[in-house]
Design goal:
This protein is α+β, with helices and mostly antiparallel strands. It has a domain at 5-63. The protein has helices spanning 33-42, 48-63; strands at residues 5-6, 13-14, 21-22, 25-26. The longest helix is centred in the middle third of the chain and has 16 residues, at 48-63. The structure holds zinc ion. The site of zinc ion has 8 residues, from helix 1.
């Protein structure tokens, strides 16, 4: 299963290949391709602990909802919807009848 990661630099969600390797090298669980290239250019190594945590979070997100995002509460209207009936033509009495 392919995992969705969130770049810690720009916050974008990205979907690396299942093998976690691009054609030009390994994919990072921390950075999108842009920021991975930036980090590589600056000589910044991927922190192994943070990478492992990001991988774990992505796996949990893939397993199901409700891990880091609370499930939506069941919101119901407090009152039943009112149905207003259209007045019947000639339904009201007039003084003349
Ligand atoms: Zn990024």
């Amino acid at each position: 299963m392919r995992l969705v990661f969130r770049c810690i630099a720009c916050g974008t969600s990205y979907l690396p290949p299942e093998s976690m390797t691009y054609s030009d090298g390994p994919a990072s669980p921390l950075w999108c391709t842009v920021h991975q290239a930036v980090a590589r250019g600056r000589g910044i190594a991927e922190p192994p602990g943070a990478a492992a945590a990001a991988l774990l979070m992505a796996r949990r997100r893939a397993d199901g909802p409700g891990v880091d995002e609370p499930a939506r509460p069941d919101v119901r209207p407090s009152r039943p919807a009112r149905t207003r009936r259209a007045p019947k033509p000639g339904g009201r009495r007039s003084k003349l009848s």
